[in-house]
Known about the structure:
Strand order of the largest sheet: 1-5-6
Distance between the termini: 126 Å
Oligomer: single chain
Largest sheet: 3 strands, antiparallel
Amino acid sequence: MSLGNGFGAGLGQGMQFVRGIADAYRTGQQMNDARDQAAQKEALKGIASATAVESTGYTADQGKELEGLAANGYKIDFDGAQKAYVARNDAGDTKTIAMQGVTDFMGERSAGSMSREQQDSTRMLAMADVIGRTDPERSLQMRQQLTLGAHDVKRQAREMKQWQQDDEVGRIEGEQRKQFQASLIDQSGKSREATMDDHLAHSQRRIAALTQAGHLKAADQATQDLMAQSHIKIQMDTKTRQEASDKAAAGLAVGDYAPLMELYNRYVPSGYKISGIEAGQGGALQIKRTDLNGREAAPVTLKDSGEALGLLKSMASPAALYQYSQGEFQRSLRPSRETVPSGLPYGASR
């Protein structure tokens, strides 16, 4: 055999050997890929079939809380009757960590129940982890889709909540407009022009209705109208209010409280109306009041006629009367909060 023929034969045998190695490698890769695909398919099947189990128990956060208490010198005991851990320290402080409703899902425990949407999100994240072992790009796409989907759900929930609030505010405003229009019709069915006092009372009722329904933003916007109306009324009424104040002072001197009641009800835009004034022991005056809806409100007590005269003097200042009336109106919106200072001048009490 010539040198050229020998070299060619050797080269051919070498190439066959290399091709054999390559074929064996490809076969091995195909077998590995098949095993990986089978394992991936099985893992995805397990994720898809996983079910959430609800029970009563403790969460990891509660465990961390117990560890923190122990680190701070608390002695931890388990109370079988309460089925709860009880932590006590030397100062006598006691903390109880009780069992709660929990959900176990795909190896994780969370407090409370899991919604279908939460379960689906957990499944998709787990599937993205499995797929990411062989296809990182697809895994990233899945995670991005999940993030975008979560943002869309939150946005839609916010929009739905806002639409519901807008509808509710519109309904309340509509009811208040109807009541306002009805208040301008007399017994004969004739309608009259609305006065400043009519518009002011309408604004107060709007604010009260919106506040009671929890629409504080809309109530704050309506309050801007009320503040402007109150300021204008107080300024315009200065002369006639002073005349009425003089009559009230004269009435106080002889024990006639009707002028004082008329003065307050006509000139003080506080949201309250005085329904009666009674003299008590030691010369104290108990002022009975009603709210915007005519319901009995907490009474106000003046220690004597001298304090009542001080109240009349304070009403001579438009700025002081404005501050007082607005403060009283805001307090009328939260009648259950009796701990709030009354805002009455000269130490008047409820």
